[in-house]
Amino acid sequence: MKSISLFLTCLLLFSCNTTIKNSLMSKKIVIAHRGASGYLPEHTLESKAMAFAMNPNFIEQDLVLSKDDIPIVIHDIYLDDVTDVAIKFPERKRKDGRFYVIDFMFDELQTLKVTERFNPKTGKQFYPNRFPKGKGIFKLHSFEEELQLIQGLNKSTGKNIGIYPEIKEPEFHQKEGKNLTEIVLKTLSDYGYKSKKDNCILQCFDAKELERIRVELKSELFLVQLIEFPEETKQLKHFATYADGIGPWYKQILKKKENGIWKFTSLVSDAHKLGLKVHPYTFRADSLEEFSTFEEMMQTLLMDANVDGAFTDFPDLVVNFLKEK
Ligand code: G3P
Ligand code: CA
After folding, report:
1. Residue ranges per domain, the chain?
2. Which ligand lies nearest the alpha carbon of 311?
3. Which fold has domain 29-77+141-324?
4. Which of 30, 33, 61 to mutate to test the pocket of ligand 1 (most atoms within 8 A of CB)?
5. Which of 7, 224, 250, 305 is the most exposed place for a label (fewest CB within 10 A)?
6. Distance CA 235, CA 215 (A)
């Protein structure tokens, strides 16, 4: 009798523990980084539709303004590493040899052919095993076009996949006489993204600008402070005064591997103590660097280091990993 009740107690404890684990797990989010960019050219609508089908929690948009003030979904202020701009408009390069999104009207941008990321100096594809460079027909698109795609798919599939836009280089835009942030906030508001319950996370590397978004522009959105350099992690307490989370480079979480076991910096626990979520970038199955396998990367960062989400070029793999766990 005693052993049966012990067994039942253990079973109860185990099932409670599983429930706790599951509820914690459900808080870990998958962010489709530039869409399903491991499979189709980054930031194309095709890559976003493919990502949507993989059931991430959020799909990312990097945003830059065109000459006529239309937010364009593209990773950089430059055009020449993902399009054929150098062939179509050779005379439009600046003194530094680069082609800038901001120098082109939206109509002109739409004439460009988008391709898999490459080095504009050598023409070499950045990730050799991804979608072949120069193949297929892909175009640039506006932020609004992408919002219509995601909201339309949410309606037709009954899903509720969120958006994760990034304000790119606000200082560069200001120097060019443009206000990217205010245009993006207006577009978000027009499409119903106004507060933390609206399934939108707004991110920026520029700390002054993200703080301005909260304090001066009074945004009520969920804000994530991106972190590029390790010394910025010293600002954590200040970030917590206006942001809801941080997006560090994943290497800022790793300390060293000892006898096959990863040791971590205090970044995740420090952030959690301040109530900040941690969404590191970028989980790439074809660029593992210090990890032996993608499974090791996911296990180490998502489970052992206990981060709250992952920016990934391979949303299907991270969604499956979390589902199996
Ligand atoms: O925004 C977070 C993640 O995208 C890392 O930055 O350079 O890929 O835009 P980046
Ligand atoms: Ca980004």
Report:
1. 29-77+141-324
2. 1
3. TIM Barrel (3.20.20)
4. 33
5. 7
6. 17
Tens digits of per-residue pLDDT, 268-279?
999 999 999 999
The CA 281 to ligand 1 mean position distance, Å, reads 7
Does the annotation mark 272 as catalytic?
no
Given the residues 33, 43, 141, 173, select the one marked as catalytic.
33
Output the CA–CA distances (angstroms, integers) from residue 81 to 41, 97, 134, 136, in the order listed. Answer: 11, 12, 12, 16
**How confident is the model over 27-81, as pLDDT tens digits?**
899 999 999 999 999 999 999 999 999 999 999 999 999 999 999 999 999 999 9
Is the C-beta atom of 309 inside 6 A of ligand 1?
no
Q: How far is CA 113 from CA 41, 62, 170, 231, 253, in A?
A: 11, 18, 26, 39, 38
141 catalytically annotated: no
Select which of 75, 141, 173, 279 is catalytic: 75
97-116, pLDDT tens digit by residue?
999 999 999 999 999 999 99
Give 9 Cα–ligand 2 centroid separation in angstroms. Answer: 47
| Separation between Cα atoms, residue 199 and residue 163, nearest integer Å | 7
Q: Where are the alpha helices (DSSP H) in the chain?
A: 2-25, 45-53, 85-88, 106-109, 143-157, 170-175, 180-190, 207-215, 236-239, 267-273, 294-298, 315-324
Find how far residue 24's CA is from the centre of its chain: 21
Element housing 163 (H / E): strand 162-167
Q: With a 6 A CB cut-off, is 248 part of the ligand 1 pocket?
A: no
Q: What is the mean pLDDT of residues 179-204?
A: 98
Residue 19 has pLDDT above 80, yes or no: no
Q: Is any atom of ligand 1 closer than 6 Å to the C-beta of 203?
A: yes
Query: How deeply is 127 buried, as exposed, middle or buried, from its count of CB atoms within 10 A (0-12, 13-18, 19+)?
Result: middle
d(CA 192, CA 198): 7
In this prediction, residues 288-304 reach a mean pLDDT of 97
154: which residues sit within 8 A by CB, 6+ positions away?
A: 160, 161
With a 6 Å cutoff on the Cβ, whether 116 touches ligand 1 is no
